[in-house]
# Entry
Amino acid sequence: MSNESTQKIIPIDTHKLKVACSQCNLRELCLPIGLSDQELTRVDDMIGSRRKIKRGQNLYSAGDTFEAIYAIRTGFFKTDVILEDGREQVTGFQMAGEVLGMDGIGTDLHTCNATALEDAEVCIIPFDQLESLSREIEPLQRHLHKVLSREIVRDHGVMTLLGTMRAEERLAAFLLNLSQRLVARGYAATEFHLRMTREEIGSYLGLKLETVSRAFSRFQEDGLITVQQKHICILDTAGLKQVLNHQAC
Amino acid sequence: MSNESTQKIIPIDTHKLKVACSQCNLRELCLPIGLSDQELTRVDDMIGSRRKIKRGQNLYSAGDTFEAIYAIRTGFFKTDVILEDGREQVTGFQMAGEVLGMDGIGTDLHTCNATALEDAEVCIIPFDQLESLSREIEPLQRHLHKVLSREIVRDHGVMTLLGTMRAEERLAAFLLNLSQRLVARGYAATEFHLRMTREEIGSYLGLKLETVSRAFSRFQEDGLITVQQKHICILDTAGLKQVLNHQAC
DNA sequence: CAGGCGGCTTGATCTTGGTCAAGGGTAAGC
DNA sequence: GCTTACCCTTGACCAAGATCAAGCCGCCTG
# Structure
């Protein structure tokens, strides 16, 4: 993975270094399958550049003019909305292979902040070029629509979580979702480092950080997981799923 | 407005009666502005038929195969997700000029139920035809993307409401949002009939029906609104907005 | 017109999660 | 290596909203 970068001797401007989509191991997450070589080349040409974002920096902020969407190559992000009175709502956590910035299409302004929770790199997908290309490449168009739609469905899931679940159910759902997405990327399902703080988890789940902390402790007491700061091991996936289905009290 | 229909003497099968988009007074809500006559004709051709839905019936249900999205001509809908254990989360209320069904694009299956809360009529927009046409008509493509994106942003708003607001703030936000959307359709801003039950409002807002009822009563005591069953008058819009900004206790 | 039902309101009580506070661990910076 | 700052945990207490319960209103149906 990091072979490429550690072996390089000659200094290269990585911003200009082109890692073609056609070569990217995240391809199946970002692009439709079944594109012809020629079509893939055109996609490669569209994604002209990449951008590195340091931990803590914003990829974009609410109010920025919308020009592109972003495919995450490496790193981990949160998106959030800040209310006038300062309250924060984290609307999602995004990892490699996922797409950021679609909130801006509707108004040509970004409506939320996207912040790197660890050093990250994204592919910049200029949206007008994407629209143009997807008018010509039908599978690309279809894929874009699917990505947009899945975001809507994902949001419905979060609404359901916030509207109907109690604290421990929410955290169980959160851990299981994270685990599942890591598996899809080839990582271990049961052991991982959280990139976000308890407060950010709490904001996402509609809970206070103390409640998140207590729920972690409770899960640990019950033998469902082990917690050491941000290092989580899931010991009993089935048990976590039961927490989810155990509705009410 | 209703001149057209009241003046018709000859009985006509309204299912076959074509009310062209080009003639529809909701056009500016469904379609981009600036289409040429020729383009509008092609859109008219695409939207082949309409469908009436009786109060209480579903336009589509979770699990149905996805084939079309729907533009509401008349009536009022709710969309909801039912969890395995029976819990319901209402994900939105939709009125004339709004678009339903975009949750199905991602998986080719609808992921929620769309239920008419009053007798309704929708325009059926076959999605493959819409994709095809939007590959040719750039403003149509752009518009579709904006509609999808705005749905995402709307969902973020609901997530914020569910994640950070207390009961009375939620209800105030709900009433103001409803009022604003009615105004955009030429209705009175301050007086309207709720089409949904307290329980459905509660599900949408992540509250129990009793809490919704109490919040209504509280607003009435405070002189912000009058409530008679489902008939609402907003007496003090500014006051409701203050409830929203008054954060915490 | 009577009866029944669905939906709404209101009160009393309980529970979950929020709030406030103290203390400890870890990692980054001097 | 020490200090500092951030993050996390845990406890005690509190309050918002859920739950349980009773009764009412208005509408639909027979």
Summary: The domain at 165-248 of chain A is CATH 1.10.10.10 (Arc Repressor Mutant, subunit A). Chain A has two domains: 15-161, 165-248.
